């Protein structure tokens, strides 16, 4: 079976009324409209600014078909046990409850057979879970952590981040309702220390009023601009409930893994 054409996959989204479409696909543009003109605080929304056509093409990478199998591969507690997959890899990291499983499920919504919550039961060893997205890339769901991440967790994650050769980008999740917390700093400091290219994804954007969300986004943007070296200067606000920002994030993932042709 051939991969569905771009238009079929993205057609429903493209049929939305213009305002709704822009809000769903380009959430930062929509937020920016609420800023006082000329105040121009640096919402860096135009660095990665693909067309709707690019976004539609990227979408097909995430559609499971007989030729594009999207599936859980295995879990690992140590890097040595990680599957030997040579394709480009991206990983998702964040504190427990930040919305990581929900986001990964939203990214895999066109692959309904994928089971995301593999080792999440309380008391189970925290593992890195590897998912293959056809021949395109591998997505790694890193274990969530709480304040004072335990030493063995840090060892596992640090080793992976430092040594995984095909790791193209780390997606660091921050809850947009609460902003950057001490817990988030565990991951930020790791990424900075290892000079990894990473991206901040702001989760649960549907939960706040527009005013609160804008305030948080501006604060986090300021943090990224002034306190980080390796963080991509554009934020990715998303909601796993409304799917706002999900298509753009998929397009960014396709781009950093070399799949946006
Ligand atoms: P994880 O521990 O990081 O994997 O977090 P989960 O994905 O399990 O989400 C934690 C809680 O936040 C759950 O109750 C989710 O239903 C909720 N949640 C996650 N993402 C969203 C979102 O985008 N919007 C809203 N409103 N709730 C969310």
Structure description:
Helices cover 36% and strands 15% of the residues. The protein has 9 helices and 7 strands. α8 links the parallel β6 and β7. α1 packs across α4 and α4 crosses α9. The mean pLDDT is 89. Bound molecules: guanosine-5'-diphosphate. The site of guanosine-5'-diphosphate has 16 residues, from α5.
Query: Count of helices?
Result: 9
- Total domains, how many? 1
Into which percent range does the helicity of residues fall? 25-40%
Topology order in helix (H) and strand (E) letters: HHHHEEHEEHEHEHEH
CATH superfamily: P-loop containing nucleotide triphosphate hydrolases
Give the end-to-end Cα distance, rounded to a whole number of Å: 21 Å
CATH topology: Rossmann fold
Q: What is the CATH domain class? A: Alpha Beta
Question: CATH architecture, please?
Answer: 3-Layer(aba) Sandwich
What is the CA-atom radius of gyration, in angstroms? 18 Å
Q: Which regions are unreliable across 5 or more consecutive residues at pLDDT < 50?
A: none
Q: What ligand species are in this complex? A: guanosine-5'-diphosphate
- Record field, number of beta strands: 7
Largest sheet: 7 strands, mixed
Largest sheet: spatial strand order: 1-3-4-2-5-6-7
Mean pLDDT: 89
Shape: globular
Strand proportion, as a percent range, falls in 15-25%
Structure class: alpha/beta
């Amino acid at each position: 079976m051939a991969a569905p054409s771009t238009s079929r996959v993205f057609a429903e989204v493209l049929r939305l009324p213009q305002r709704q479409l822009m809000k769903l696909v380009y959430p930062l543009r929509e937020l920016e409209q609420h800023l006082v003109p000329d105040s121009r605080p640096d919402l860096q929304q135009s660095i990665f600014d693909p067309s709707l056509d690019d976004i539609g093409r990227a979408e097909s990478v995430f559609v499971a078909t007989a030729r594009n199998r999207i599936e859980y591969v295995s879990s690992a507690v140590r890097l040595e046990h990680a599957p030997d997959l040579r394709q480009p890899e991206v990983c998702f990291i964040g504190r427990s409850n930040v919305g990581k499983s929900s986001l990964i499920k939203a990214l895999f919504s066109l692959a309904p057979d994928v089971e995301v919550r593999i080792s999440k039961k309380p008391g189970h060893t925290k593992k890195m879970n590897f998912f293959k997205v056809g021949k395109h890339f591998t997505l790694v769901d890193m274990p969530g952590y709480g304040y004072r991440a335990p030493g063995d967790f840090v060892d596992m994650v640090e080793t992976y981040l430092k040594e995984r050769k095909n790791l193209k980008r780390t997606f660091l999740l921050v809850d947009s309702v609460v902003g950057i917390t001490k817990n988030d700093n565990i991951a930020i400091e790791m990424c900075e220390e290892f000079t990894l290219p990473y991206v901040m994804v702001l989760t649960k954007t549907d939960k706040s009023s527009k005013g609160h969300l804008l305030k948080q986004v501006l604060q986090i943007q300021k943090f990224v601009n002034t306190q980080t070296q390796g963080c991509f200067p554009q934020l990715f606000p998303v909601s796993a409930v409304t799917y706002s920002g999900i298509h753009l994030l998929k397009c960014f993932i396709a781009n950093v893994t070399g799949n946006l042709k």
